[in-house]
Amino acid sequence: TRERVAEAARRLNYRPNTLARSLATNRSYVVGLVISNIANLFFAEVTQGIEQVADANGYSVILCDTARDAAKEQRYLDLLASRQVDGIIFMSGRLPADTVAAIRNVKCPVVTISRDGASYGIPTVRINNRAEAARAVSYLVNLGHARIGFISGQLDDAESGLPRLAGYKAALEDAGIPFDP
Known about the structure:
Blueprint (H helix, E strand, L loop, with lengths): L1 H10 L6 H8 L4 E6 L5 H16 L3 E6 L4 H13 L4 E5 L5 H9 L4 E4 L10 E2 L3 H14 L18 H14 L7
Parallel strand pairs: 1-2, 1-3, 3-4, 4-5
């Protein structure tokens, strides 16, 4: 009997009602992704990776590009919460107090990427910029390079620019290569 039902479903192109499934299981199998700029290569690559992992695990991703607009960030957080997504991944170049408050008010799990949400008690995935810059320099030193330039974004950025420069300088020092500004 089960095989006959499955065959009839295939023949009729039956599609399960995902809304009904969500109500029955209390899971939507949807993750919200809020980013500040899809044109930013970093965000685009991370978005692609998130989508691939989500798809491999049976999830869909709703992408919300805020174009660096704080009001849009809050609207998208509200929208995703109203859609009862299973979780939200929040990637932004900033985390102002009103956005922190909006994240705290969402009734589903939220994790930030590339922001220091941890200082606000928000689960955060971060890059160790200092260690990764040092690792890149060490890699080049191990290939035999002795003149290694440093190209960065804003050096006054305490979250990425300054730690990257510190890692660069530390790796040069460890290799016995003088820093040449």
